[in-house]
Amino acid sequence: MIELFDEDFDAIELVEGALILNKAVDPNTQEHWAELELARLLEEAEQQLFHLRDDKQRLDSLLRLFYTEWQFSGDHDAYFSSDNAFIDKVLERRKGIPVSLGAILLFLGRKLGLPLEAVTFPTQFLIKVCWPNEGPSYINPYDGKYVSKKRLHAWLIGNEGPLVKLQAKHLATVDNPTVIGRWLALLKSALLREEKYTLALQCTDLALTFVPDDPYEIRDRGYIYQQLDCHQIAATDFQYFIDQCPDDPAIELLKTQVSAISRSPVTLH
Question: Which of 119, 146, 171 is the last residue of a domain?
Answer without folding.
Answer: 171
